[in-house]
Amino acid sequence: MSEASADTSSGTPADKVDVILMKRGRTKIRYPAEVVADDGTVVTVRAPWAADGVRDFGFVRFEPGDVFTEHYWRDRWYAVKEVRTSTGILKGWYCDVTRPAVREGATLTVEDLDLDLWCSADGDTVIRLDEDEFAESGIKERDPAAAAAAESALDDLERLARGGGPLSPPLPGAASD
After folding, report:
1. What whole-number distance in Å separates Cα of residue 91 and Cα of residue 88?
2. What is the SS3 assignment for the chain?
3. Residues 33-81: pLDDT tens digits?
4. Which pLDDT score is estimated for 175?
5. Are the C-beta atoms of 129 and 101 separated by less than 8 Å?
6. Count of alpha carbons within 13 Å of 59, Cβ hemisphere only?
């Protein structure tokens, strides 16, 4: 699928997709999501917290009722997930370093490359995550170009987060916080 392709056979994106997050050749998680926008470069979907129960990272808790608005690029090595409570309060942004996203019909697939970044809603907390997992994954030896792109993506995300603005791109017709 080319970078600019999108599912536009009916003139608008499909209403639903299955998001598939791959890790080292296996499906890490798969969940349904509503397509919010797809401009051919960025696919934005919305989905409730997809895992069972609560996941407490210490700096943020993801829990049933949380809503994720997820932005996947076909030309960037990361995804940005805006996290809100069930009442709409912004918790922050969880960013996954991934290979560029591929959308084929009702499936959106991304490959997780271990590196992550968290930025709190107020921007005061910016944390690089899982650098140890990335180092242990062997990607630097297996695929040096992908490893370099992943490290560069994490640096870009951190610069964006420390820049003080929102990490999520604006949605068509939406007001920002």
Report:
1. 9
2. CCCCCCCCCCCCCCCEEEEEEEECCEEEEEEEEEEEEECCCEEEEEEECCCCCCEECCCCEECCCCEEEEEEECCCCEEEEEEECCCCCEEEEEEEEECCCEEECCEEEEEEEEEEEEEECCCCCEEEECHHHHHHCCHHHHCHHHHHHHHHHHHHHHHHHHCCCCCCCCCCCCCCC
3. 999 999 999 999 999 997 888 999 999 999 999 999 999 999 999 999 9
4. 53
5. no
6. 16
